[in-house]
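Check out a protein:
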Amino acid sequence: MRILSVDPSLRGTGFAILEEVGAKVRCLEYSVVKNHQKISQEGCLIAIHEALAAAIDRHQPQALAIEKVIYVQSFATAIILGSARGVAVLAAAQKGLSIHEYPPKRVKQAIVGKGAASKDQVAFMIRALLGLTETPPNDAADALAIGLTHLRTVSSPLRATQVPRKQ
């Protein structure tokens, strides 16, 4: 299974391509779409969409794993984050990928062992778990963590015993 995983943000969207073959997971690519403060919101959204669409074209993943919307205190921040998340989901949906969401605490719990882990702890563990030669930037590390959480979830023997949620 090959997946695209995304940690959305207007100015620093992290993304990664992970591939699971048997019990082995390898990172094919990770990066951060960095948008300068002077770029308009619309320009940022276009850049995010283009970068993710290009990654999908390069690697042909079957699924998108993305951070679930979290509670934020500012409506403006929620709208901006939702917009960045929306273009990521759009890029995946246009290519027919299945879409899976994971809350930040669940990702941190899966990778570090505690839901209140810092970004540096997540990045350190991702480097160790994936055998990377360098510690990825925090936004890319978060995307890698989301992807690894997804792969662990779908391959878990416990998954077969879980009762599906009603939509």
About this structure: The longest strand covers residues 24-34. Helices lie at 41-59, 75-94, 104-112, 119-130, 138-154.
